[in-house]
């Protein structure tokens, strides 16, 4: 049986963020036998659209972009944990997506939003961008403050554990299908 490698992305860099707690909880729900890494975009530290050429060329010259490309290519799929900021998603995540091009094509990407209103606006906008870069977009559950988690990032009993597990299964199924195509 092939072990699949899935990245779980922390897509907030705010000093008071709870994204690391959400991502760790999501990662803990991966099926047994799945290799899971938590990727913190604050640690990836990509400069803002700094490549001299368009990402579509694939000619990356900055060490940070080359490392980011290699890292994303190493995964069979991703799950992005995304907060909602003013009805959108964080700029650091947009930059991480826009810094690459071909790496997203066909990559299964699940989305778990969190915040007031379960980050529905952010997840919708992110889905549009992921569709544009030709990722295999797999919408997942949203976590609402007061129902599924606290504003401090503590996961509550009502959190959609089974839905997150189901999202992992969708990501893994899509990863297996992309290998056989």
TrEMBL record:
Family matches, as Pfam families: FMN_red
Residue span(s) of domain NADPH-dependent FMN reductase-like: 5-148
Domain of life: Bacteria
Listed Gene3D superfamilies: 3.40.50.360
InterPro entries: Flavoprotein-like_sf (IPR029039), FMN_Rdtase-like_dom (IPR005025), NAD(P)H-dep_reductase (IPR050712)
Protein name: NAD(P)H-dependent oxidoreductase
């Amino acid at each position: 049986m092939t072990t699949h490698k899935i990245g779980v992305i922390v897509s907030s860099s705010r000093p008071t963020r709870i994204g690391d707690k959400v991502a760790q909880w999501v990662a803990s729900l991966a099926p047994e036998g799945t290799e899971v890494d938590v990727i913190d975009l604050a640690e990836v530290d990509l400069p803002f659209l700094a490549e001299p050429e368009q990402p579509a060329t694939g000619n990356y010259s900055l060490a940070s972009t080359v490392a980011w490309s290699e890292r994303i290519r190493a995964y069979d799929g991703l799950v992005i944990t995304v907060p909602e900021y003013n009805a959108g998603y964080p700029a650091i995540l947009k930059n991480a997506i826009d810094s690459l091009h071909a790496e997203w094509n066909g990559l299964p990407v699940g989305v778990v939003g969190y915040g007031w209103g379960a980050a529905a606006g952010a997840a919708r906008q992110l889905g549009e961008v992921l569709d544009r870069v030709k990722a295999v977009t797999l919408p997942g559950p949203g976590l609402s403050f007061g129902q599924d988690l606290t504003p401090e990032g503590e996961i509550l009993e009502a959190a959609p554990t089974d839905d997150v597990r189901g999202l992992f299964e969708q990501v893994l199924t899509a990863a297996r299908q992309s290998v056989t195509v």
